[in-house]
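Lecture notes, continued. The same structure-token format from the folding unit now serves as the input rather than the output. Read the line below as a description of shape only.
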């Protein structure tokens, strides 16, 4: 296969042949604002895995995040508001909920009940944002680069996860463990992004698809023209707007005004939509059962299994793990998902991830039996964790979010995305709760073999 016929070159040529000005600052800014909705999820995930290592936090609470407990509810309920008040106001509302929850956690001091309330409130908003963010990006992105732009939501999550870990690392290095400020700072700092994203959201346009679904067709055309950076009379704009509005009008003519009953009936009663339900659920089951989130949530402890000691070293290594995922997710968004396709990206990621788990399972099995290992074998175990992060970012980390946002017809996109994320958060809650038991009951090494299978 020559270079000119490679999928990457074809993809790049197709982008260059797109209508002039379609990839403009307005589009990039709008996508950026919606990608910020992923920051709360990433920051919570990163800081939660690291903050339990702080002596000041252990003295006051010594519990992990309860965000996952209410996340399933928040995700499922979000579809109602997404379709009623629009994408922008939904975004603002969920960001406000996250900020309130973080402030409650910050001011909880020694009250375990207050910390619980703060995390439970945050969970409602964080999960709802994982529905609204990818869905909104899918609705405003050009079709050719829809996968690329949607994956920048995941990139924002990973960036925030890395920053959250290093904030905890900085607090551990520079603040006294006798001060509450050591654990309060990571909780408080994460409120900055919700406030920033809320402010920036007043400078973006509403989703043209949502406006068309509400019968505001002229506003939808105006919004699309603004996002595409061109006049309303451009031929390519009319072609795209027709491809958006016509299916919506046909769906409305067939199913009528959207109600909860009609939405559920269309989702589960139509064979093609039922296949979408099955696909997204299977994707999220595979993502959780692959053990990647288990590694993320208990990474400092797992690093201890393979020879990394000391609080600083564990937190710092966790930050590098998030950085590894971030770098590969950027590569996946630019070169894999749209260029070679969703399916190939998924299989590449799963296959290499499986081999990493096999090695990680064999290493503690050998060390646990009392046998000595070489320094190279120990370094390889650490490398396997980072390689695992890289390939997970290519496949099972990124693609389920994309599937959950882009597979659905316009009329049930919000409900389909909410249903997908609801299952995702329920599976995440289950595997997070089960991971300590899996690690202990399977003598550590068996857990990695279980994840590989």
């Amino acid at each position: 296969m020559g270079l000119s016929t490679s999928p990457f070159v074809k993809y790049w040529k197709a982008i260059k042949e797109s209508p002039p000005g379609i990839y403009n600052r307005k589009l990039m800014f709008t996508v950026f604002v919606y990608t910020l909705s992923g920051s709360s999820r990433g920051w919570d995930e990163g800081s939660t895995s690291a903050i339990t290592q702080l002596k000041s936090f252990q003295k006051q609470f010594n519990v992990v995040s309860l965000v996952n407990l209410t996340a399933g509810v928040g995700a499922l309920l979000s579809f109602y508001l997404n379709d009623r008040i629009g994408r922008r106001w939904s975004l603002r509302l969920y960001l406000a909920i996250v900020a309130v929850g973080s402030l409650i956690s910050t001011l909880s001091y020694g009250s375990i009940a207050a910390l619980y309330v703060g995390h439970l409130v945050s969970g409602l908003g964080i999960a709802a944002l994982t529905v609204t963010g990818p869905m909104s990006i899918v609705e405003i992105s050009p079709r050719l680069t829809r996968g690329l732009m949607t994956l920048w939501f995941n990139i924002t999550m990973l960036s925030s996860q890395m920053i959250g870990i290093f904030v905890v690392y900085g607090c551990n290095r520079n603040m006294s463990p006798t001060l509450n400020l050591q654990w309060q700072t990571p909780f408080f700092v994460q409120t900055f992004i919700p406030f920033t994203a809320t402010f920036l959201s007043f400078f973006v346009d509403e989703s043209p698809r949502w406006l068309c679904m509400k019968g505001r067709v002229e506003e939808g055309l105006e919004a699309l023209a603004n996002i595409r950076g061109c006049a309303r009379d451009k031929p390519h704009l009319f072609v795209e707007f027709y491809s958006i509005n016509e299916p919506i009008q046909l769906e409305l003519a067939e199913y009528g005004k959207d109600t909860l009953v009609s939405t559920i009936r269309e989702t589960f009663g139509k064979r093609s939509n039922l296949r979408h339900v099955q696909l997204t659920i299977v994707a999220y089951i595979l993502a959780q059962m692959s053990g990647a989130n288990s590694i993320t949530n208990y990474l400092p402890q797992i690093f201890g299994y393979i020879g990394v000691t000391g609080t600083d070293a564990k937190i710092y290594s966790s930050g590098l793990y998030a950085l590894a995922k971030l770098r590969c997710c950027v590569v996946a968004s630019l070169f894999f998902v749209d260029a070679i396709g969703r399916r190939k990206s998924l299989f590449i990621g799963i296959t290499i991830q499986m081999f990493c788990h096999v090695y990680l399972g064999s290493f503690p099995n050998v060390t646990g039996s009392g046998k000595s290992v070489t320094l190279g074998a120990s370094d390889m175990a650490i490398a396997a964790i980072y390689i695992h992060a890289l390939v997970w970012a290519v496949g099972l980390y990124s693609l389920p979010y994309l599937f959950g946002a882009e597979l659905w017809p316009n009329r049930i996109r919000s409900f389909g995305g909410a249903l997908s994320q609801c299952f995702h958060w329920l599976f995440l809650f289950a595997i997070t709760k089960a991971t300590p038991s899996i690690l202990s009951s399977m003598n550590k090494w068996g857990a990695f073999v279980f994840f590989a299978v």
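Point for the exam: The chain has one domain: 15-452.
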